[in-house]
Amino acid sequence: MPQVERRLREVSSRLRRAREELAVLDEQWSALEDSAEEARVRALVSESPADRRDERDARRHADAMSRSRQALSAEIARLIAAQDDLLDRLVVDTPPIR
Fold first, then answer.
1. Which region holds residue 47: left if phi is over 0, alpha if psi is between -120 and 50, else beta?
2. Under a CB-based contact definition with an 8 Å cutoff, are residues 83 and 12 in contact?
3. What is the tens place of the pLDDT at every residue in 13-45?
4. CA 19-25-26 angle, 5° bins
5. What span, in angstroms and rounded, lies between the C-alpha atoms of 33 and 66?
6. Residues 6+ apart with CB under 8 A from 80
7. Does the predicted model carry a pTM greater than 0.85?
8. Which of 18, 42, 77, 90 has the smallest number of CB atoms closer than 10 Å to its CB?
9. Would you say residue 98 has pLDDT above 70?
10. Considering only CA atoms, which of 24, 5, 11, 8 is closest in space to residue 76?
């Protein structure tokens, strides 16, 4: 059981850090999405090659951040599943209270 408890603490710590990182990524992604939308509007209005290039660059950055968020969200889901499994094992391994 001590091994299960140790693993549970490790997974919980990793889960907490991943959630904190996701909060930061969400803020960054939101800013990049806003920037990409502004660049899109500028490119539509001006129709200049430089503004179109800026739009593509801004969209690429926002899309890359979105992929990072998705990967981190998947990691969080995996950690939650691992935590649930460890909690189940901890409960099964714990003798009943009398």
1. left
2. yes
3. 999 999 999 999 999 999 999 999 999 999 999
4. 90
5. 9
6. 15
7. no
8. 77
9. no
10. 11
Any idea which residue has 């968020």 for tokens?
69
Dihedral angle sign, alpha carbons of residues 18, 20, 24, 27: positive
DSSP secondary structure of 19-51: HHHHHHHHHHHHHHHHHHHHHHHHHHHH--HHH
Burial string for 76-88 (b: 16+ CB within 10 Å, else e) reads: beebeebbeebee
Q: Which among 29, 52, 25, 30 is positioned nearest to 41, based on CA atoms?
A: 52
